[in-house]
Amino acid sequence: MANDTTDEQILKGLLDTLVMHVLRDGENYGFGIRERLDQLLGADAGLVKEATLYPLLHRLERNGLLASYQAPGERGSPRKYYRLTPAGHDFLERRVAEWRRVTALLHRTILD
Questions:
Q1: How far, CA to CA in Å, does 41 sit from each of 18, 35, 86, 88, 91?
Q2: Mean pLDDT, residues 53-60 taken together
Q3: CB count, 10 Å around CB of 71?
Q4: Cα separation, 66 vs 59, whole angstroms
Q5: Which end of the chain has fewer beta carbons closer than 10 Å to its terminal beta carbon, N or C?
Q6: Alpha-carbon torsion 11, 13, 15, 21, what sign?
Q7: What pTM was estimated for this model as a whole?
Q8: Crossing angle, helix 5-24 and helix 30-41, to 10 degrees?
Q9: To 10 degrees, what angle do helices 30-41 and 50-62 make?
């Protein structure tokens, strides 16, 4: 997937949705988000790399879909916590509906 621009765009859209899905359950910090994604993705956990996750979080925040704040971490260094904004919740609902539509289309045409 890594070298094809179309595949990268599909993966980018999917990762946005996955990260926002994790945050739908409550605020979390970068490493915590990655740990939860690893649990959800299982054998495909390698899709989410640190070099991908943090720029994605920053972009979602710049676009008003996430808000953040800093709080002390367990070892003293601050952690940046993210949460969905109301716009983020709305965006996630629309994105999940789009993925359901795409999945249904694939099942009707290619996968069945």
A1: 9, 10, 26, 22, 22
A2: 95
A3: 10
A4: 9
A5: C
A6: negative
A7: 0.85
A8: 110
A9: 120
pLDDT reported for residue 44: 84
Average pLDDT, the chain: 89
Provide the token pair at 21.
Answer: 């899905």
Q: Which two tokens stand for residue 86?
A: 């109301």
Kindly state the average pLDDT of the residues 78-101: 96
Q: Does 29 or 111 have the greater pLDDT score?
A: 29
Estimate to the nearest angstrom the gap between the alpha carbon of 15 and the chain centroid. 4
Sheet holding 28-29, edge to edge: 28-29, 78-84, 66-72
User: Phi and psi for 46 in degrees, rounded to 5?
Assistant: -65, -10
Q: Helix, strand, or coil here: 2? A: coil
Sequence-distant (6+) residues with CB within 8 A of 48 are 15, 18, 34, 37, 38, 41
Residue 74, phi then psi, degrees to nearest 5: -65, -30
